[in-house]
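Hey, can you fold this?
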Amino acid sequence: MKDLLLITPPFTQLNTPYPATAYLKGFLNTIGVSAFQMDLGIEVILELFSKKTFEKLFDLAIENDSISTENCQRIYTLKADYLQPLDAIILFLQGKNQTLARQICTTNFLPQASRFEQLEDMDWAFGEMGMQDKAKHLATLYLEDLSDFIIECIDPNFGFSRYAERLGQSANAFDELYDSLQNKPTFIDNLTLAILEDKLKTVQPKLICFSVPFPGNLYSAFRCAQFIKANYPEIKIAIGGGFPNTELRQVTDTRVFDFFDFITLDDGELPIELLYQNVCQPHNNKGTAGTDLQNNIENKDQNSNNTNHAERSRSTTIHVGHNSKEKQYKRTFLLEDGKVVYKNNTTRPDYKQLQVGTPDYSDLLLEDYISVIEIANPMHSLWSDGRWNKLTMAHGCYWGKCTFCDISLDYIKIYEPIAAALLVDRMEQLIAQTGENGFHFVDEAAPPALMKALALEILKRQLTVTWWTNIRFEKNFTQDLCYLLKASGCIAVSGGLEVASDRLLKLIDKGVTVEQVAQVTRNFTQANIMVHSYLMYGYPTQTVQETVDSLEMVRQLFELGIIQSGFWHQFALTAHSPIGLNPSDYGVTPNYKSITFANNDIDFTDKTGIDHNQFSFGLKKSLFNFMHGIGFDMDLQEWFDFDIPQSTITPYYIEDCLNTPASLTTKPTAKIVWLGHLPLVREYTKTKKGFVNELLELTFHDKTDRLQITVNKPEGEWLLDTLETLKPTTGQALSFSALKKDFESQFEDFELFWFSKQMQKLKDFGLLQL
């Protein structure tokens, strides 16, 4: 039994839990509140994609006479072939039945319907990715065939990572969603509610908190809340997460509170703590907890300033508790006297990131998530393949200027980085808890300085981890920094190129140029770090010519191999972005509607009058081919069924961007790090014109190569001593100026030595300037 139940409703990811409830449970641990969490989505998927359930689905399709297309007729005809391996396929995708890969990769093991029509494009990818990944891809296509059958014959709202998403998109009024909830529960609803009821009987919570990150989770959250209200009316229900944070900031429809008692906004830690006190401990407090501040902040290196801050916060909390006569809330909507009211009457500040604890993945069915590969592309598969522990390097965005982004909201606006040592402490705790060494840092944009500090801390502790994150393609990602990130376990980054046009990038206030993006993606790629780029079309004032030129830029980036994956998004006007707040400054005219429920996406007209929708298919089709390493020689016109202008971008534009000479200057504050091993040393002499010169031959070995350099003995001995101190394991990253001072205390002209041919070779072998 637990007083508090945290739920992620269907559906998010198949391969790993969405992290919000784990973040909250980790925080609740620090204040002594015991909670249970569940990912209802993965439990429903596993029940749905089982042989016993699909037997019912096939029977139901015949009973309802809902099989209409030739594709689903084929699937039904082959139902025995689809049913027989289904449970084994799920086990394989869970990593529990790996020998099945050899069977799956044979041509006649899995039945094939329309999803297998793309098989002729697979040869490129699986030469690189291997048998297990090829089997995962084939098994994914098999599940997608069954998904198509569900959508056509059983439930058109189904999707692997979303359910009834349309009902949550641009839902300015609650009417359509409310009306849908008056209908009989669907087959998938009934599966969901049966699993939920089992959990309610076991946990017996007093308060249930639904974390709803996306529109595709909203309907299921409301359906579950409706069931709870009808059958367990004594339980209080709250909703929070990404969707409410963005969309439900102006809710006024009282019917919403027939389902939920509370809607919380933005950071959830303090709002949920106060709800817990109000609901679960109503006689012990007046909306505050005298012991609510965690007593064991998880910062091993916590300094006195942090301690003083914690003590000040505790004193403040006790003071509020003694003087408050009404229940305290933080950024919470609720129904009061028949009206929707917004309560933010606590004086307590939100918790700092060092206080929120380590995410706790206990209770979640970590062994049961399924890894799928939807597209045969190594970078693209990261979102769906593998179990990733999710963490955040920093709250908010350190840039916080992009004009299309919701930068007015706290989750982006308030930037607060986490110390690298604390981050790695949390990584080690998660490895111990989950047994997984893979990490996805889900930042808005991870700051380069913090990524550098994180990498050095990982190397200092000699951890073996794999990690990836989201970034801005900014100039601080030098070649040497990329090598350092790779050495620490970074395998991939994703970032926004958005519109590949310098004019539009300036209008976006992205702070980058196309040339800079090209150079940074080259730096990552040369370090064997994969790159995914978010791409945008239809930005206000964007012309047809700029869209075509943007596609040509993207083509060149892929052809040169400095971007491996991408995704085109059509620009959406959002209420909380600079464009949404000041539309006339960007040449758009919003079509505002009355808001009683959700408010984010806004219909608008662009002064150019261009129908950007027409580019959608061609842009995505071309990108799909580029991601598979094909289609580079095709004329851009071939991707579209309407006339487009010729690109004005020269055929070698991106290549020319990469040929900009690198600067040989080094900042005095640059940190110098040695990633290699100490060399084998051979001492010898060389006589020339009567002068005997003592030399050292240094032979360096790394995992794949060797390097031999020769230096004068005195400088060589200094170098050997210095390299030992420059290793990350020492925790002493010396600056360039400190190195220069030390060298010149014994010798002359450090620059002459540092920029010599021998030292340049060593810099290519692991001597980094950061």
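Oh, and this one too while you're at it.
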Amino acid sequence: MAAVQFGVLGPLAVTTDEGEPVVIPGTKVRALLADLLAHRNQVVSADRLIDDLWGEDAPANPGAALQVRVSQLRKALNDVEPGARDLVEFRPPGYLLRTDAVDADRFTELADSTDVDRLTTALTLWRGEAYADMADEEFVRAEASRLAEQRLAVHERLAEAHLARGGYDRVAADLAELVVRHPLREGMRALQLRALYAAGRQAEALDSYADLRDRLADELGLDPGPELVALHRRILEQDAGLSAPPRAAIVRNSVPAQLDELVGRAEALTELRALIPARRLVTLIGPGGVGKTRLATEAAREHVFPDGTQLVELAPLPAGESRVAEQVLATLGMREVAGASVCAVDRLCAAVRQRQMLLVLDNCEHVIDSAAALVARLLRDAPGVTVLATSREPLGLTGELLWEVPPLAVPGEEGDLDAVRRSAAARLFAVRAAAQQRGFRLDGRTAPAVAQLCRRLDGLPLALELAATRVRALGLQGVVDRLDDRFKLLTTAQRDMPPRQRTLTAVIGWSWDLLPEADRRVLARLAVFRDGCTPEAAEQVCQSDLDVLARLVDRSLVVMDDSGAGPRYRLLESVAAFCAERLEDPDDVRARHAAYYTDLAERADPQLRGPGQQEWLARLDEETANLRAALLNGGGLRLANALTWYWFLRGRLTEARRALARSGGPAEESRAVAWRVGFALLQGEPVAPDDVRAVLAGDVDGRATWFTAHAVIGSGDIDLALELLPTTFDGRWTEAAVLSSRAMLAHAAGDLATVESAANRSAALFAELGDRWGALQANDWVGGLAEMRGDHERAAALHREGLRWAEELSLWPEVGSKLSWLAWIAVQTRDYVQARELAERAYKLAVEQDSPSAMIFAETSLGMAARREGKLDVATVHLTHLADQGRGVTPPAFYLPMVLVELGYAAEQDGDPAAGLALHVEAFDAAQAMGSPRDATYALEGMASAVRSPELAARLLGASVAARVATEAPAAPAERDETDRVSDRLVALLGRERFDVLVAEGGRLSPGEARARL
């Protein structure tokens, strides 16, 4: 991304790559930046940002104030480097700062080391206290505290390293000030005591201990911890061992040397290193290929136990083998005694009873009973032994700490190079691929393919490494293209890998072979699901019970995710592919899968129009992949019909049309036909009015009839829509929907009385039904009515409330609509910067949702805001595009008059009043033909600005004033700016008295009569 560096290890700082400082103007803008940096690469909600920046003193329009500060921040960044504004990204429900150029992240990377030079470099990055100029702000406190703690830990680690090298005076000097600032930190105090004593300053060491003891008693009511008490005693006893650098014990260690870098596991290693001394039994569990062995050996290598660390490989033992103790004895180098009657377990326990050691038992799953029995004895009889086990299922012992090794994080957005580079899975693949092919680079060209590969392989390290070995022969894209045949593809000729890890088939087959036949059958059936399933679905489709599923989860073949509304069972893609090849009854399983999800969709359909809307939207969202698979597995048109309303709410129009194109029985066909036409119209596809009428002449229910009429409104054919809208209703929901559509049509026609009655009745009905989508529709026109009557503050409040509802339901088409409404109001109230920003967001969403009508709404505000800001070239591009679209349909689009007026003003302001007048006249005639008095009035005002005769211009203004009074549609502030500009010019030409007389004359003319004076 752009060359902008951020600094938080001290006062907030922004610099270029060359170190030039960047000025971030304004206290609130700096606070916004600090808040986003403290939560970098995470979405911070707009509500939280507003609360952080203003608290209880929020401005009258906090959303607009926040957007102004965001715009100022983006501009400051963009002034440094074009494109840097995109670092601050809007993502519902707020904003995120997307960057990896923060000194705190560099510090964290360096701090996770034992190397003295790297630790020293980490400390040089600090310029003061973290977020020093924002220290009182709650939103940076957690991040600042974490960094401060990490900084102290680095100081302590450096002190340890220097003590080991004999740098006693240096450590004592370095720690003196730190101990003063952190007098109750016992670990740091212990290092100072050791340094002072070893430097021959015993009295100072004893004084320091006394100071700590007194402070703890006075301030916390505590005594020093046992380690410090023991250290104090050794100083009093003048222990000679404290005067020399500690020597590493000479121990036997069977952990293999590191051959290559462990990528993407820094956080996991940190956590495990803290657990190993504290817990006597830690079991790393996870599926085959996830990297349990590698993580265990790296974690074990960091710890020095007095009697060493031993890695015991259990994989060579046959499945079910009971002689695990003999394998451990062999690893320890203990020969069996000929003729001895003592069993191996007893002999092992006796041998290690007095030892302090770490025992790493690798690959326990196939000898799980024997391994568990041995570990239970060791934990009981050998208190100095700590066990770190790896297994695809738990040992099942008291005191066991299960640590699930997750796959590596995969890229979320393949088009975002920075996001791909941050992904641990992508970094691992890139490192291993570069080792095979020197020219391989993770860049803009390779990132999309690498991201796809990482996701397809579920971030499994072994699968990624196997794939990397094939890049040299097949090329990156060749590897990706062959993932559907992954079991042939993912093999390796590396001779130092165990046979069970040389192919992906062997990795998964190792676990498959350990299952009983009944569990294999259920596991194979689970492969029919896509993106997981609920327990209920698994039981019905797989004809299983939860005990089997629990066993498969324990054996790391099924992943159980409990982060959502309820538990879901999921197979990694590679495991699913392996199992699908072993499915014995595929046709029966797929039929049960289709039946289950068809029933689910049919149960969901009525719930999507009531109080359960949010819950059922979430359920169907979660089952999207399964629903798509069920369509292929036999759900057909029946399932497609059940999903029509869900697809509409989610804006998935193309998916809906594709599914509804399937054939079905007479009942399914009859139900599908109206929805096919409606979705086609919503996507801008022309459908002849007679064809629409023919569809609705059949056996179509009221909801489908309304839906088709609603789609016709979006296409601009108002007369046809009025003809099609039902006048009798098969339920309250259809009545509420029809009323909302009638309010929309009345709004376009300037019929305020109908807007008010229809919108309010629709809102009341939808509220009774508990349908929040319906409430959003009615909210549009209740807010639209407030805007027409000039109450812009209430209109904006209503639309902001609707925006919140839409975001809570993740109804992105409605989010875009509400953003467009707010952009429109911002235009009318002269806030053109906010209007442009809101309209840009709305337009982006409309493009994503493939909604032509939503694109038009958003682009209208973009054009109007640009014109009124004086950006005539930008405005003309937008407005001409809209005008061409509006003229190109029959009848002309209902938005055409308004766009033509704006285009006319742009032409006039660009020095061509004749062209402007022609556009205003065209707009007036179109508005009259459509029956839209509000647009006709706006066009009259445009004519007044462009005609040459000042007398005629004054009469036109008078006619427009009278028309606004008649239609109860006062001019908005931005519209008044236009009429005021014309009025001032005419008063200067005609004089106030003559101007007033002519305006009064015009007020006695109808709009049509005024137009005829041209």
